[in-house]
């Protein structure tokens, strides 16, 4: 639908992963004007991350199951009227009224572009995906120790490996995918170390039986791992990484049911890299900053609470994909389409196509049930803190050790991540607690009666670091701390949907604290 | 069986070019991020923390800020996001980069 530059878009979709693309395609095919924003230059999100065109990969499908399905989805996006705004890092969303939103973004590969932009829209679909959960252990800051999904991402986009002999460790189904791609790409993977077991899935036979594609996927990874002689070690964890300038070996220790290391069971495995991660955490800060309700997932993460049509608790804001709980790309695509149809129905004031909506909802519910079963099977046990030594760094940015955090909890009475942060600076660095948040919250909870309860959602005022100049140029209403809906004044007439503001340089960043 | 990621993906990249890391020449492929080019050359550390520890790319997707590098004189660039360009000079960044900025 034709839209003049001064008019808001009908829908701004944040995130061009499977959920965001499916949402943008569905909404635009239903006649809405759509802006699709992503921090990356490319579409695909985490799963369909792929080499830049100049790397001329003739077999991108070798790095992804389901590449043809993605290529079709991308084809529909390209054929649609949706505007794909590349390299747009969204740092906050403000609400003028229930059907007037402003999306604030920084441009450039790493958000260093000259001009911050604002995109106005009548509705917003949050499809920002997930990030990895990390549990620290001695030596995890050594070069060569990398995030499991990070190794996967660097392989898929840059065609590189962090080493030649790579141990894969942590917990969750992503590990099998990572191990099988690293091995297929030429790395020797001496072991995949999983803290839980895979038997947990068997407790949910119905979820397994109704999701046969998941079994096929697991079988495919399994056969690659078998072919490359990768040893799966369950109920075990890497409890220490050794080396001086880079990792040279890891100690793998057996865990009990509660993830407590079993003394005397440690053994060394030589390696020159370790890819480690403990599941995925929904990225919800843009939504929680606007007051959206959340729910607790079976593995202790916080996801957005959504209704049957992907609506958040805040009118005008929808969400799809891993923002609503981690569940894989097929679920993300289904939710994206459902959200796109629902937004179109609401803005056009007519019912969504009933048959299609019912079908999508059925598929979504089936896949969510499976995702919950997986999450429960891989939920971190409380005993993991047993492998921390007092000098293990917990917060990588501010170099705060487990000893400091424990002192804040037992000595100074901190009972939550926020208090620990104020006392120790854990979580105050550049990453705003994305890397250490889960660990700090667990350590803080150790001081409470609930003991084992992992983190609640931490509110981050800014989704990405923002130059001070950009913040200073914001009208009062767009300051994230003042983002209460009632405090928001409609913005003075804005000449264009994307108006460059100020000439703020990129390098005086707001301290994310 | 593939021996390298490029072989697996059937990549036939455009001609490679050179960048430097602390003065040493590193070959990059067009389309790689700076972090990918450095990993490709076996370099896994390009920042030191305030306590002096070596660091570099960890999350690989722009979220951890451990990969901050000084690129052509500008500090605090996330090497995992910034594409490599011919002639780029990457230098080891010391500390977390807040200090000189006063933020
Ligand atoms: C590092 C990593 C690696 C993964 N690898 C695999 C894998 O190999 N196999 C597998 O099955 N699953 C993998 N997953 C899980 C995968 O995320 C999902 O299955 C699927 O991609 C979810 O789709 P989505 O659309 O919900 O989110 P995503 O695919 O994550 O897409 C979200 C998009 O939002 C963008 N975004 C986020 N925040 C902002 C912001 N503030 N401003 C602008 N854009 C933003 C991101 O750049 C991204 O493109 C991985 C996850 C992570 C975190
Ligand atoms: S590797 Fe984490 S931000 Fe670059």
From TrEMBL, chain A:
Source superkingdom: Bacteria
Protein keywords: Oxidoreductase
All residue ranges annotated as the FAD/NAD(P)-binding domain in the record: 9-322
InterPro entries reported in the protein's UniProt record: BFD-like_2Fe2S-bd_dom, BFD-like_2Fe2S-bd_dom_sf, FAD/NAD-bd_sf, FAD/NAD-binding_dom, Metab_Enz_Cyan_OpOx_G3PDH, Opine_Oxase_asu/HCN_bsu
Signal peptide: none
PANTHER family linked to this entry: ANAEROBIC GLYCEROL-3-PHOSPHATE DEHYDROGENASE SUBUNIT B
Name this polypeptide is given: FAD-dependent oxidoreductase
Species for this entry: Streptomyces triculaminicus
TrEMBL record, chain B:
InterPro entries: 2Fe-2S-bd_N, 2Fe-2S_ferredoxin-like_sf
Domain of life assignment: Bacteria
Coiled coil regions, renumbered to chain: none
Signal peptide: none
UniProt GO MF annotations: iron-sulfur cluster binding; oxidoreductase activity
Tagged with keyword Oxidoreductase: yes
Protein name: (2Fe-2S)-binding protein
